[in-house]
Design a protein that fits this description.
The chain is an alpha+beta fold and about 1050 residues long. Helix content is about 45%, strand content about 10%.
Length: about 1050
């Protein structure tokens, strides 16, 4: 058979024919062969793999070898023996050099084939010695990466005991010799990938054998501190930095800076080379280590080294700002170097010739990330020019280039300079990193910012604090499922039970991030919330339909893209749900119904449609925005049949319309854009300067809105909800196509909520479109947040048979009736059917900043359950009925103000929490109310209100079914095991950190603050500027949030 195969692969037959014959040869492997025939076949296939003339021959060799090794395992074990493998590693194979990567690949595959054979143990022992010899020979990156692949798959081949320390040290030396001479992108990417594999191998060894870590780091320092002019260590060593535990930074830096055996020349070389590492892509924490070493040297007053390194490397660090991948780290190091170099303008003046070009380039590209970067850079430059005044000829071009960016106050500049000086670093090493600590006194867990993920963190904390929703998620049995809901359950479980102060939601972020969201860039939290709820809803719908169609099969859950989810849901669900038992969890918790009613003003025929919603987007009344022109910027996918929608309201530029008081108690017309499938398109947009007849009865309903000093009004959420529900006249370009008239006609559209959700989500449309500059701007108007909100819900029987599609009713012929009655079906008394459903404020997501593309999100929240304060609602029914009888849906002069005041006295004492990424603190409702007045850029954006019921209404939560902690259900064993394992790891980290602190107990706090903010900063602050508006330069962590 081997002769046939050898003749075949070298013949000139067509390739398809060869493949057919090869398949026959592979199939014949299961037949019996004697030992000599097997050995001949193994020898031939080995030759084809290692010396094949073309890819086809090598592929045939792999296929046939694997087939014959599988069916003739003893014979292959005898062939692939210790002697053969040793000869390959030391002598090569025929003409093939022993350092060829093909030999390592062959051995790697051979180990897989005999993994279950006893002789593999002998091979492991052999390879433990040989791999050490190989790394001592300084293999090239490609060969070293293949060796790392082998050792990653077969950890038994890694040297053990003392040899493992030697192996790690030699591997570090090997990395220090790596070089990539190519400038082509493909080759550079391949080189980075190879280095990453080797550094990952070292990381795995350090984790498995912690005793190897310190000797490895000593070897790294020995390489970068070498003063041998003939040897320049590779920048690839930067790939190891991200694997060094940050808890060790204090101990290691202190050891280096105080070690008398480390000469100044060696330290200078080491620091310079660490700064060179800033150019290594994908490396993390390099800037943290560089700044920590700079501070450590300042603490021991080694100013000569600092001066030499700063002047030598400041231009190189500045040039790294051109590259997006390394820009944040380079900016952090540049800021520290310049701000600490306060004895001379020399370092600053070295970069001045390059500043203007950089600023102009970044201003021209118009990217939000570039603008945010320029804001930070401008602040740094202003600090330096303030400190080194007296050079107008040098500074004038720079001032002209940065004139459009904000200038920090003199007080702030002084603060930054004082905190950054070298003299302020004395005895400051202990606090260079925020210490690990357990949960704060609040008992709540923060969420670590993964790089501009505050939009997700704030939303997740708000959902977590939605108590009934959290309990429902935690009580789900999702074992064996890999759905997004499973990941949300995992995240909720860790937030509830971890001992960490803050948790990193990396897995959930990757699974829940909308495909169009750019990683590490600021996004709209409202858009993210809509995407998340819709994804969870559609996912549950598909799983439910699949389980009903395939009840006999085991359902395997898998992650699905939004497009796949939506398309499957459209195919599998054709009939709308009617009963609560058929609703998804998202529908039960956040789903409501909204009825849209259109009356043709010519023939008086009506059309109506009932649709589901998960949130209401509330626009600001145009009258309160003066001459500004706004439009809706919230985006959400069209709802599929049977799906959920978001009712959104663009903020128009038209004048407000006043209404007959017998029709409604509103000041502004509602401009509604229903982004749902099947909605009439253009005729839903508001026309300009429309009005209603009966001029004598027009009133300004907003007359009793509270006044700010100076006569300015402060609208409330109640006013915005009034505006949302106000009737709208469709005329001009927005005329409605009437089927009865068979033409475009003026019409009036009204909206009514017919079914209220358990949790009412309200989004305040704060981002407007500036038509002059073609950018989105933020509406910074303060909005009063009522603790108690009454939602008007129309419960009528005349529309009970209404299908969720547009229909035409009979004409109204009585022209003398008022307009409100003409919009109602005959025999219906809407005033008697309106019920004001009470809601309590559960959480507020705040946006800090002046645009949607930048800034910071944080949230206020508290625990509110269905039955909480229900006793307070009992005495409200009479007052609510009284309010309704006066014809006010949400009027401020109704008894709701009295009820709200009564509830506020009771509810304000309840605990509110401020969730600001990793930081969680106690706060109060007064702080929530005053946030915008204290910090004008910090405004409420997304609100969650919890409906108050006399009973819970959620039958799934039965505390008697198991041990419920603080009302939460017991966790699944899989979840509890994961949390227990992580908590043990956390305790080990705490122990390591405690030992590190004990070594430098005499050290004082560092000059820059840990992750948090001063009492004088707003909660959304990312530094002295507050509001996410740029941050200061006195800290690494505050530069990018």
């Amino acid at each position: 058979m081997d002769k046939i195969l050898e003749g075949l692969v070298s013949s000139s037959h067509p390739l398809p024919l060869k493949r057919v014959i090869v398949r026959k040869v592979v199939e014949s492997a299961e037949h019996w062969l004697d030992k000599a025939q097997c050995e001949a076949m193994f020898d031939l296939t080995t030759r084809l793999i290692l010396e094949g003339q073309d890819p086809f021959q090598r592929q045939v060799g792999h296929q046939v070898l694997e087939a014959y090794a599988r069916y003739h395992r003893p014979e292959f074990e005898s062939f692939f023996n210790k002697t053969f493998v040793l000869s390959l590693l030391q002598q090569g194979y025929h003409s093939l050099d022993r350092k060829d990567v093909a030999i390592l690949d062959y051995i790697h595959n051979g180990l897989k084939l005999i993994m279950s054979c006893p002789s593999v143990l002998d091979l492991f022992s052999l390879l433990q010695v040989e791999v050490l010899r190989m790394v001592c020979e300084r293999p090239e990156p490609q060969l070293c990466a293949r060796l790392s692949d082998l050792l990653t798959d077969f950890v038994q081949c890694i040297p053990k005991g003392k040899l493992s320390i030697t192996f790690c040290q030699q591997l570090v030396r090997t990395i220090s010799h790596f070089q990539c001479v190519s400038t082509q992108e493909r080759e550079l990417r391949e080189y980075v990938s190879q280095v990453t594999k080797v550094s990952n191998l070292l990381q795995n060894i350090w984790k498995a054998e912690p005793a190897t870590l310190l000797p490895s780091l000593q070897e790294v320092f020995a390489s970068i501190s070498s003063t041998d002019a003939s040897f320049e260590p590779s920048v690839a060593l930067a790939s190891l930095v991200q694997h060094i535990p940050l808890q060790m930074i204090t101990v290691l830096i202190r050891s280096l800076t105080t070690d008398p055996n480390v000469k100044d020349a060696s330290m200078t070389q080491a620091l310079c080379r660490m700064i060179d590492w800033l150019s290594w892509p994908l490396a993390q924490h390099v800037d943290t280590w560089v700044i920590a070493l700079l501070k450590g040297l300042a603490a021991v007053q080694k100013f000569t080294i600092l001066i030499d390194v700063t002047l030598l490397k400041i231009e190189l660090v500045f040039n790294r700002l051109w590259f997006p991948l390394v820009r944040p780290g380079a900016l952090a190091v540049l800021s520290h170097m310049l701000l600490s170099f306060q004895h001379s303008p020399e370092a600053f003046h070295l970069i001045i010739p390059h500043v203007v070009n950089l600023v102009h380039s970044f201003k021209s590209d118009g990217l939000p990330s570039s603008t945010a970067f320029l804001v930070q850079l401008t602040e740094l430059i202003h600090c330096m020019m303030y400190h080194y005044s007296g050079f107008p000829d040098l500074y004038e071009p720079i001032l002209e280039a940065i004139k459009d960016f904000p200038k920090p106050s003199e007080e702030k500049i002084k603060l930054i300079l004082n905190q950054s000086a070298w003299t302020s670093q004395s005895n400051s090493l202990a606090s260079c990193l925020s210490r690990l600590s357990g949960k704060s006194e609040t008992g709540k867990t923060g969420l670590i910012n993964l790089g501009n993920t505050c939009y997700m963190n704030s939303v997740i904390q708000a959902l977590f604090m939605a108590t009934d929703f959290r309990r429902q998620v935690l009580s789900l049995n999702l074992n064996g499922c890999n759905s997004l809901m499973k990941k949300l359950q995992h995240l909720f479980a860790f937030l509830a039970h971890t001992q960490r102060e803050a948790y990193a939601p990396r897995i959930f972020f990757e699974a829940s991030r909308p495909p169009w969201f750019t990683p590490r860039s600021q996004q709209d939290c409202s858009e993210y919330l809509r995407f998340l709820l819709d994804r969870l809803h559609e996912e549950e719908k598909i799983l439910r339909v699949q389980s009903s169609h395939k009840a006999s099969e085991i359902l395997e859950c898998s992650e699905t893209s939004l497009q796949e989810v939506t398309s499957k849901a459209a195919e599998l669900t054709e009939t709308p749900r009617t009963s609560d038992g058929e609703k998804t969890l998202i529908e039960k918790m956040f789903g409501g119904k909204l009825r849209t009613h259109i009356c043709c003003l010519n023939c008086r025929s009506t059309s109506q449609k009932v649709e589901a919603f998960t949130d209401l987007s509330l626009a600001f009344c145009p009258s309160s925005l003066e001459n500004m022109s706004f439009q809706d910027t919230a985006s959400s996918p069209n709802a599929q049949d049977g799906g959920l929608m978001q009712a959104t309201v663009p903020s128009p530029s038209e004048e407000p319309v006043v209404y007959n008081p017998t029709t409604a108690a509103f000041i502004c017309d509602s401009v509604v854009n229903e982004r749902t499938t099947g909605s009439p398109p253009d005729e839903f947009y508001c026309s300009e300067n429309t009005s209603v007849s009966n001029e004598s009865n027009k009133i300004l309903v907003n007359k009793d809105v509270p006044q700010k000093p100076g006569g300015e009004t402060t609208p409330s959420v109640t006013d915005l909800l009034n505006y949302f529900l106000a009737p709208e006249i469709l005329t001009g370009d927005n005329q409605y196509y009437c089927g009865n008239c068979a033409s475009l006609q003026n019409a009036e559209k009204t909206m009514q909520i017919t079914e209220e959700p358990e949790y009412l989500i309200l989004t305040l449309l704060r981002f407007s479109y500036d038509q002059k500059y073609h950018v989105r701007r933020k509406i910074l108007d303060n909005v009063s947040l009522p603790l108690v909100l009454e939602l008007p819900v129309k419960r009528t029987t005349s529309f009970s048979s209404l299908s969720e599609s547009w229909s035409v009713d009979v004409d109204f012929t009585d022209i003398s009736e008022n307009l409100a009655k003409k919009l109602k079906p005959s025999g219906t008394d809407e005033a008697s059917c309106t019920k004001l459903v009470p809601y309590l404020l559960s959480s507020v997501v705040v946006h800090s900043g002046i645009s949607s593309e930048s800034g910071h999100y944080y949230s206020y929240a508290r625990n509110v359950t269905s039955t909480e304060s229900s006793y307070q609602m009992c005495h409200q029914s009479e007052a609510l009925s009284l309010a309704s009888s006066h014809g006010h849906l949400l009027g401020r002069d109704s008894s709701s103000a009295i009820i709200e005041q009564d509830l506020e006295n009771k509810e304000m004492s309840k605990e509110w929490f401020l969730f600001n990424d990793s930081r969680v603190t106690f706060t109060s409702f007064q702080s929530v109310q005053k946030i915008t007045s204290r910090f004008p850029k910090d405004t409420a954006y997304v609100l969650l209100y919890k409906k108050q019921n006399s009973t819970n209404g959620l039958s799934g939560n039965n505390p008697t079914s198991g041990l419920w902690i603080n009302g939460d259900p017991p966790l699944q064993k899989e979840l509890m095991d994961a949390i227990t394992k992580d908590n043990k790891l956390y305790l080990q980290e705490q122990e390591l950190n405690a030992r590190a602190r004990a070594l430098q107990a005499a050290s004082a706090s560092c000059s820059f603050r840990p992750n948090g903010f001063d009492d004088n900063d707003p909660p959304g602050s990312c530094g002295p500027t507050g509001g996410g508006g740029g941050g200061g330069f006195n800290t690494v962590g505050r530069l990018v949030f």
